[in-house]
Amino acid sequence: MTMRNVPDNMCPIAVEYTTMLTGDWRALRPVVDRDRCVKCATCWLYCPVQCVVERPAWFDFNYDTCKGCGICAEECPHRAISMIDESEGLR
Prior knowledge:
Elements: E1 28-32, H1 42-46, E2 52-54, E3 59-61, H2 71-75, E4 81-85
Antiparallel strand pairs: 1-4, 2-3
């Protein structure tokens, strides 16, 4: 059976690629205390969306894709990551 008569907007599968920015609906965001971060990469290892970004002396986050789950802060053995309310704005 062919689907020749189905318009593109009626068949959303594989018609158009859209990037989902999960950071748009985040309530909390992770913030790194640079003095406490020893670059152990535990946050990177446990992040379910891989939004952790390596910097020269610490790890940081890509806030476009970070969904604010807090797993990084929970797993950080040095307590270098804290979750901040998103309403406080980006620094």
